[in-house]
Amino acid sequence: MTAQDTMQNNTSKASSTDYDVVVIGAGFSGLGLLHYLKQQDLSVRVFDKADNIGGTWTWNRYPGARGDSETYYYCFTFSQELLQEWSWSERYPAWGEILEYLHFLADRCNLMPDIQLETTIESAIYDNESGRWIVRTSSGDTYTCKYFVSAMGLISEPYIPEIKGLESFAGPCFHSARWPKEGLDYSGKRVGIIGAGATAVQLVPSMAPDAESVTLFQRTPNYILPARQRKMTPEWEKEIKSNYPEIINKCRNHVFGMPFDSPVDRVAADSTEEEQNAIYQKLWEEGGFRFCFESYDDLLENLDANETAANFLRHKITELVDDPETAEMLTPRGYPLFAKRPPLDHGYYEAFNRDNVHLVDIAKTEPIVEVTETGVLTEKQLYEFDIIILATGFDALTGALEHMEIRGASGETLKEKWRAGPSTFMGVCSSGFPNLFMITGPQAPFANLPTTIEENIKWISACIKHMESQNYASMDVSESAEKQWGDHAAEVIDLTVMKYGHEANSWFVGSNIPGKGPSTLVYFGGANNYFDKLQESLEKKFPELNFTATI
C-alpha cells in the first residue's frame, strides 16, 4: 500500500490565499522555479531581502569572486533559445557576469513583475485550520499561500565566529558576503583576512597587488586545484553551442552534475606511480575539477587511491611557493582530497611569494586571542590592520532555514525538529511541514548547482501540478520515506572520503561551525543517481507523499 492509498479527506474547506506559491530567495533557485510555475498559470510571489536579484552573486561581490563551475554549464538548460542567445566572456564567470546572466534570464522570461526585493521574511507558520502558510515580513506585513518554498540556497547564511573584541576594531570589519555596496578602497591599506576557504583563495591574489599588505589567518589548509582561466573565443563558443544537447545530457548523468567523461574502470592501483603522475599532470595543466573526475574512478572512495592525487597536489605547493615554511603551512595533511570542498586557484599560491602577503597558522602555532581596536592579537603578537575581512564561510544547508521561524503542522520549528541533525526527503521536503518545499535543501547533493537546482525544480513544479490537477489540499512526506532517505544518505557518505570531513572542518558535514557537526548534510551517492530517484518518484506520482483531498 502506497502513501497515497492512505489519503484522508480534509475536514474543512481551505480559505483563499494571497498567492498560490510564496518563494523565498531570488537567486538561481527562485528565478528558475518562478519560470516553471508561471507555465502553470499559478500566482507566485518571490521575496528577497537584497536590493537586487542574484542570491549568492548579489551578496558575494568581493574582489575575485567568481564561480568554480565553467560558464557554459553554470546556467539553466530549459530553453535552447536562451542558451544560444547568451554569450559568456571567459571560462569561469565573475560575479558581475553571473548577475548579468540572471538579469538576462529574468528579462527574457518576464520574471521581475513577480519579485519583491528588500523584503525580509521573518516567519512562515502553517495554519492547520485553513491549510495555508502565513508568511510574515520584518515590517509586519503578512501574506498567505498554499505552497511555501525555500530557494535560499546551500550557503546563504554567513558564519560570524565568536572572537573576543570583534566589535572593538576601529576600521571596517565585515563578512566577505556582506561586502560594502559602495565598494572598499583597500589601496595602500593593511588587510587582515580571517579564514582560508574558497573565498580567501579568491581574495588574496586579487587584493595583494594593491594593498600595502595582506595577512591571512588560516585554520585549515586546502587542496587547491588550478582554474586555468581563459577568455571565451568565437571558435570555442561555437563548439559549445553546437553541442549543448550532449553537454546537458552529460551534466544530468555525471556524479557531480558536470559534463565530464568518467575514466570507466580506471583505478589508481592499476597504474605505476609514473603513469599516475602523467595523468595528474595532464589534468593539472588542463585545470578545473577534471583533475578529480577524469583521473581515476576510485579517488573519492579509496584512501590509497586518493593519497596518490593528494600527494601530487602537495608536491605542487612546494613547487609554487618559494618559502619552505610557508609552503608547509599551506599543505593539507591529516585528511583526504575532497573531504573538504576544494577551491580553484587563480594565483593563490604564487601570491605568497610576494613580500606583502603573510600567512598565520591559527590552528597550530598562533591561535587568535582577540580582536583589538587596531588589529588581531594572537598568542605571539599583535597584527595591526586598517581593514579586517571575515572570510569565515557559511552555516551551510541548514543555517538559513533554521535562522527563519518556520513552524509546521505541530507547531514545531524546523530548527527544533533538526536539533540532532537535519531530516528530509531528498532535500526537497520534510515531514510535519505540509506543502513546504526546499530547493537543494539538506541531504540534497552538492554538485554543479544549476543542474541540481533545475532537477529539484522539475520535481517540485511537477508535484504542485499533480496536486492542483487532483484537487489536493496538502501533501506531507511520510516519516518512513524520510527516514529511509536519511539512512541511505548516511550510509553512502560512509562509503566515501567525505566521511573524514570532520577532521577537515568541512561544511559538507557542518564541522566548520563549532558544535554543529558532524552531520549528514549532503548526499554523496552521486548527483546522477539522485536525479534518477527524483525522476522515479515523479513518474510514480510521488508515492513517498501523503496527500489530503479538498472537499
Summarize the structure in words:
This protein has helices at residues 28-38, 56-59, 80-85, 95-108, 198-207, 234-242, 244-252, 273-286, 290-293, 303-320, 324-329, 348-351, 399-403, 414-417, 449-469, 479-493, 527-539; strands spanning 8-9, 19-24, 44-47, 115-116, 121-127, 132-137, 142-150, 173-175, 190-194, 213-218, 225-226, 344-345, 357-361, 368-371, 375-378, 382-384, 387-390, 405-407, 436-438, 472-477, 545-549. It has 551 residues and is α/β, with parallel strands linked by helices. It folds into two domains: 3-157 and 396-549, FAD/NAD(P)-binding domain, CATH 3.50.50.60; 193-233 and 257-390, no CATH class. Strand 2 (19-24), helix 1 (28-38) and strand 3 form a beta-alpha-beta unit. Helix 1 (28-38) runs parallel beside helix 15. The chain is globular. It starts with 7 loop residues before the first strand and ends with a strand.
